[in-house]
Amino acid sequence: MSSGTPQQQIHLAELLAALSHALDITEGQPVGHCVRACWTGLHVGQQMGLKSGQLSDLYYTILLKDLGCSSNAARICAHYLADDLTFKNEFKKVDGSLPQVLNFVITQSGVKANMADKFRSIITTLRHGGQITRELIETRCQRGAAIARQMHFNDAVQQGILSLDEHWDGTGQPDKLQGLEIPLYSQIALLGQVVDVFFMNDGRDEAIKAVRSRAGTWFNPKVVDAFLALETDEAYWQTLARNDLSDIIYRFEPGQSARIADEDYLDDIAQAFAQVVDSKSPFTAGHSERVTLFADLIAEQMGYAEEKRRWLRRAALLHDIGKLGVSNSVLDKPGRLNDEEFAEIKKHPVYSKDILANIRAFGDIAPVAGGHHERLDGKGYPFGLKGDEIDMDTRIVTVADIFDALTADRPYRAAMPVPKALNIMREMVDDAIDRNCFTALCAAIAKFDQLPTADRQAGELKAVS
Fold first, then answer.
1. Long-range contacts of 89-97 (CB under 8 A, 24+ apart)
2. Could you report the per-residue pLDDT of 169-198, keeping only the tens digit for each?
3. Taking every annotated instance into account, which residue ranges of this chain make up the domain HD-GYP (predicted)?
4. 382: cis peptide before it, omega within 30°?
5. Which terminal CB of the chain, N or C, has fewer other CB atoms within 10 Å?
6. Would you say the pTM of this structure is higher than 0.85?
7. In the CATH scheme, what architecture does the domain 10-260 have?
8. Facing residues of 413 across strands?
9. Tens digits of per-residue pLDDT, 331-344?
């Protein structure tokens, strides 16, 4: 099931087109949103006469425009008392006019809250909504640009992501840039986003109407003209609706032969997307990297070769990528989850497995991501696997995940001391977790605690690098 063998080189375009689907579910968008926005953006860019290198930068700007999208989810839930996924989807339809904004605030705030809390949320929004919106967008855009920088994209791509929500007339966020102060890639990416939101919700005519009505306000009229030149291009519209558009997009990338994802780059991509996942909730900050550290320590103790440990580190980094599709109203709930909420939580390993299984570079780690909440006695989730149905790689990540869950703060309790956590896990041996993995964890922790502070910090850096 788990090979741990070196990945073949793949085009970066293929990898990111597939991973963009994880960003789609974080934004509450139908899967394929970023890919469809990219299809539109590339056609607009071609209409405007962009050169191959410019089209390549535009391509990556749009595919990665939502890299920072998880960073504001917790605050949206806390302030608006709303499901962040539904909230984000509906917010993209608002044109900024006062009637639409007021209607949105009233209908989306406190959807599941009592009337008193709902009223307080609405009043706070009406009083401070501009500042709150600016801060949410600023966090999202700055975080997205920072992750793009970590993924080695140039300043043009970073700036394109940073200024995604700026508007031509200066009413956008976060810096109220105006006119040609806004990077062209941002202008085109925002248009591509709006086209897809309205196309998927209301159809072709409404998408065209939405863009035309925003000319001179949201959008540069020249960019709008370039899009309207596609109004009767049946091939463009028919392809926009295709289920296999992701495959078409990665083959369509301008100059794609120059962008190959080798083993080092795959490590960087895994680490970058782990940050996207961990930004979703204040209670999961650093979770994926800590699980990776603990899994690597266990694997080292169990005699795994370095090549296999590298593979396992990627699996640990991405094991929770499916949490991007779970609302923060569930992830951050301070009390006990009800049956409906727990059923939602139980979906995240399925999402993780499905996302990774569709990525050629990461397909062989999908079973680990999908199985990290299974138990040896068959009482885990989501598939009820038991015994030999759970491979050793998955067992290692499970033990690492449980250890971090117990020793880190959670919405419903404070972090446990390590000895208490290990005592709890000791009671789970052979029923829920693998004995050899737990023994290796204990041995690694004992060895770790004996190191001088400087050596221990160096070990941490090495294990997650």
1. 89/27, 89/28, 89/29, 89/197, 92/27, 92/29, 92/193, 92/194, 92/197, 93/197, 93/198, 93/201, 95/210, 95/213, 95/214, 95/218, 96/167, 96/171, 96/217, 96/218
2. 998 888 899 999 999 999 999 999 999 999
3. 262-457
4. yes
5. C
6. no
7. Orthogonal Bundle (1.10)
8. 410
9. 877 778 899 989 99
